Structures are given as structure tokens and as C-alpha cells.
């Protein structure tokens, strides 16, 4: 059903990719998404080089379907992660936060499909010139680290589609079949979904992290760090304190010192949902309950199919 170029490129039943979320996208989640017909990603951004090989092996134990790894290029451990992916023969690598030109040739020489996450058409063009196989265009609605450009998914995706000649994957603000239909209508060949899969049974997020996501309403997320690295997360005591410091005119150095390190792991791993960073997209307002990944994907596909058929029927009238 609705086979696309992304399905052909990555060997998928459905053009659905899970986000490579740090601390959350571990083997159980990646395998579950792949087993359900999409492409599960491991989030190497929060893994040490000696941890990733075991996570890859675990995914292979859980599923024989294609899967991939997200690697932030700017991470000082990225070179070791790339070597691991090549040695382990993963199917795909999603790169982000840096120039994909650094690793794309070696990955493609090893037979690994590469797609790069971008927040703007300009960076999409650069990634395409670097030789990646596809582009993930991520809008400002998305949870986690965002681009300084602040371009939303609805505006970003069609511009990226027009800017490059390779398949585009829409990301940011997609959590159900309606979002998939919208992405396809904008010219995307697939979707990347983070927040909805973070709130799943197989997600590695702490139970309190997941419970917090279910309480998020339409204005329940905020962006901090606009001057040094925009990050969308659930509004809590930490974000309120950061905004207070920003309003006082704190310098970037002072803000970074105030925030400190390890805020994401405190929320995702330890469940400190007031003093940690709860990465979460605006679309969380649609999520009402935790479900197994298989059920989430089945519902998305059924809703997308019904949506596409409904649009077709309306156009015939």
C-alpha cells in the first residue's frame, strides 16, 4: 500500500522511518519499527563506541528486516560509529548535525544507503551534492535539536522537494496517517517520526518521560537556546529557568554554564522530568496513550489509506 521511492530505496513495506532519538532509540524500538514494515533507527548520538555494536547485534536478533543508525556528524565519536556501521553491515545510516560529505563516500562504498537530516533547502542542496541517497527535511515542529532557520514542515518540505532530485522524507509534526497523507501531498516520498514512537511500549524512555508526553497540549512544548542551538522540549521547571536567564540577557557562555551537561539523559534515562530536558515535538498533543509500535504503525497505515481514498473520491465528485 502506497509504495514510494523511499520504500524501494530502503527495502521497506511502508515509507515510515523512526527518528534516531538520543537515549530513546535503542534496539527494541528500532527492531519493532522495522518488524512493523518501516525502518527503525538506532540513535548513536547518545552511545559510546563500545555500546553501538551490541545494539546493532541485538536488532539483528530481534528482526531480519532492514534497519539503520543515526549518526550526528559533529559528534566526536562519529568516525568510530561509521566504522562500526560498515563493519556490521547495517542497511542505512541517517546523518545529521554536520556535513554529510565527510562520511557518505565510505558508507556508500560499503553498500549502505545514506540520508541526511536538514532544516533548510540550502542545506538540502549541499547534502544532495555530497552524494546522499535521500533527504530528511525536518521542520521546526520537531522535538529535540532544530535548525536556526525556524522553517516549519509545511513550508519546508515542498521547497526541499523542488530543490533536489533525490527522494525527500518529511519530518516534524507527523504522528498519524493524516500526517503521512499530507507529507505525500507535499511531494515527500516518506516520513520520519520521532515523538509518536518515543511514546510507545518499546521506547527506551523512562516511564515518567512517557507519562509526561501524554500530558502535553497544543502549547505544551517550548524552544530554548535560540542563540546557540534551538531545542524543542516539554515546558517544565528547567525551560522556565532557562527562559528567565535568557530574558535577563545572559550570554551564551553563561546560559551553557547554567544548563550544564546531561540534562537530556536526566529526563530520558532517570525520569527527572522537571529538571531534565524532555525532548518532544508539538504533535504530542495528538498522543493520548502508550501503544506497541506494531499497533501504532497499523493505525497509521490504515488512516493514511482511508485518507488517500477519501481524497480520491472527493476529487471525482
Strands, helices and their partners?
Elements: H1 5-10, E1 16-18, H2 27-35, E2 40-43, H3 52-62, E3 67-72, H4 78-88, E4 92-96, H5 104-109, E5 113-118, H6 121-129, E6 134-138, E7 144-145, H7 153-163, E8 168-171, H8 177-185, E9 190-193, H9 195-198, H10 207-213, E10 221-224, E11 231-234, H11 237-247, H12 252-259, H13 263-268, H14 293-316
Parallel strand pairs: 1-9, 2-3, 3-4, 4-5, 5-6, 6-8, 8-9
Antiparallel strand pairs: 7-11, 10-11
List keywords for this structure.
14 helices; 317 residues; 11 strands; 8-stranded parallel sheet; alpha/beta
Structural description of this entry:
The protein has 317 residues and is of the alpha/beta class. It folds into two domains: 5-205 and 288-316, Alpha-Beta Barrel (TIM Barrel), CATH 3.20.20; 207-283, no CATH class. The chain is built from 14 helices and eleven strands. It has an eight-stranded parallel β-sheet with strand order 1-9-8-6-5-4-3-2. α2 (27-35) runs parallel beside α3, α3 runs parallel beside α4 (78-88) and α6 runs parallel beside α7. The radius of gyration is 18 Å and the shape is globular. The mean pLDDT is 93.
Amino acid at each position: 500500500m502506497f509504495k514510494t521511492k523511499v520504500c524501494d530505496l530502503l527495502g521497506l513495506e511502508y515509507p515510515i522511518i523512526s527518528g534516531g532519538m538520543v537515549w530513546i532509540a535503542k534496539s527494541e524500538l528500532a527492531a519493532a519499527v522495522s518488524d512493523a514494515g518501516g525502518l527503525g533507527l538506532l540513535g548513536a548520538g547518545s552511545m559510546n563506541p563500545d555500546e553501538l555494536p551490541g545494539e546493532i547485534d541485538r536488532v539483528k536478533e530481534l528482526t531480519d528486516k532492514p534497519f539503520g543508525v543515526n549518526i550526528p556528524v559533529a559528534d566526536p565519536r562519529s568516525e568510530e560509529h561509521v566504522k562500526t556501521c560498515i563493519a556490521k553491515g547495517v542497511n542505512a545510516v541517517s546523518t545529521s548535525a554536520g556535513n554529510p560529505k565527510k562520511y557518505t563516500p565510505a558508507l556508500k562504498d560499503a553498500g549502505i544507503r545514506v540520508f541526511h537530516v536538514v532544516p533548510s533547502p540550502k542545506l538540502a542542496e549541499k547534502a544532495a551534492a555530497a552524494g546522499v541517497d535521500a533527504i530528511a527535511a525536518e521542520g521546526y515542529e520537531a522535538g529535540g535539536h532544530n535548525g536556526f532557520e525556524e522553517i516549519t514542515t509545511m513550508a519546508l518540505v515542498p521547497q526541499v522537494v523542488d530543490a533536489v532530485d533525490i527522494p525527500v522524507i518529511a519530518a516534524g509534526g507527523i504522528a498519524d496517517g493524516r500526517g503521512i497523507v499530507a507529507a505525500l501531498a507535499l511531494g515527500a516520498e516518506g516520513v520520519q517520526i520521532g515523538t509518536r514512537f518515543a511514546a510507545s511500549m518499546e521506547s527506551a524512555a523512562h516511564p515518567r518521560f512517557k507519562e509526561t508526553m501524554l500530558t502535553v497540549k497544543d502549547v505544551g512544548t517550548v524552544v530554548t537556546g535560540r542563540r546557540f542551538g534551538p531545542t524543542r522540549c516539554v515546558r517544565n521547571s528547567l525551560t522556565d529557568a532557562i527562559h528567565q536567564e535568557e530574558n535577563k540577557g545572559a550570554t551564551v557562555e553563561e546560559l551553557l554554564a547554567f544548563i550544564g551537561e546531561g540534562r537530556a539523559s536526566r529526563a530520558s534515562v532517570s525520569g527527572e522530568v522537571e529538571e531534565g530536558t524532555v525532548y518532544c515535538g508539538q504533535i504530542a498533543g495528538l498522543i493520548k496513550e502508550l501503544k506497541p509500535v506494531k499497533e501504532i504503525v497499523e493505525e497509521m497505515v490504515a488512516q493514511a489509506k482511508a485518507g488517500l481514498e477519501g481524497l480520491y473520491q472527493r476529487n471525482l465528485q
